[in-house]
Specification:
By secondary structure, this protein is an alpha+beta fold. Helix content is 43%, strand content 12%. The relative contact order is 0.19. One of its GO terms (molecular function) is transferase activity.
Length: 214
């Protein structure tokens, strides 16, 4: 795993143990426990594990901001528009599916108070054992960002677990904005996934997430 060492040292929540460091390379110990789940597959993790994941995310968001910035709203909106155009022009997805989700995604494109975000908090990056979080990996996208983006990526494709995560997070959140991030993330991810030989059309994956918004 390769990361900027300075960023790794600032991680405030459950980083894996560093075995040795020779910037920009880190050797990391194996994380105990199992991944919270996988996109497209039912999660076998307990509700308590999902609650614990929400609490860990809240601890991260309460930490001091990192010095490096994240993407601006204009950059995110520009990428979203470009990906939507590509999806329709190339006939990858029906125009009505893209248009509907682009409209839903608009709710995410609003000013937010930046927090320390993981930036790519997929299920496979959060490890749990019973009802405890044992580690969080792959911090390469960590930056100043929207708290609800982290919560959205954590629950992408597992909407039924959102209540547990929010309960662990322990704060009022705008569920419509989380759903907007589900649409936005899925729209911008489809092309990269296809080009890298991932099946985004598999049951429960990004295209199904988009269809669920219809």
């Amino acid at each position: 795993m390769i990361k900027p060492a300075a960023r790794f040292c600032r991680i405030p929540v459950a980083p894996p143990q560093v075995l040795w460091r020779k910037p920009p390379v880190l050797a990391l110990a194996a994380v105990p426990g199992t991944a919270l789940g996988r996109l497209g597959e039912p999660s076998t993790a307990s509700p308590a594990a999902w609650v614990a994941a929400g609490a860990a995310v809240r601890k991260l968001h309460d930490a001091p901001l990192p010095p490096w910035p994240g993407q601006s709203l204009d950059e995110i909106a520009s990428r979203l528009d470009g990906e939507c155009e590509w999806l329709v022009t190339n006939g990858v997805l029906p125009a009505d599916l893209v248009t509907r989700n682009r409209r839903v995604a608009e709710a995410a494109l609003r000013p937010w108070t930046p927090v320390f975000t993981h930036g790519d908090l997929r299920l496979t990056h959060v490890f749990v054992d019973g009802g405890e979080v044992t580690g969080v990996i792959d911090w390469s996208e960590a930056n100043r960002g929207d708290a609800l983006y982290d919560l959205a990526i954590l629950t992408l494709g597992h909407e039924e677990r959102l209540g547990d995560v929010v309960a662990g997070y322990g704060a009022d959140v705008d569920l419509d904005v989380i759903r907007a991030w589900w649409s936005l993330r899925s729209l911008v991810a489809v092309r990269w996934l296809i080009e890298n030989d991932f099946d985004t059309f598999s049951p429960g994956c990004e295209v199904d997430v988009l269809r669920a918004r219809l």
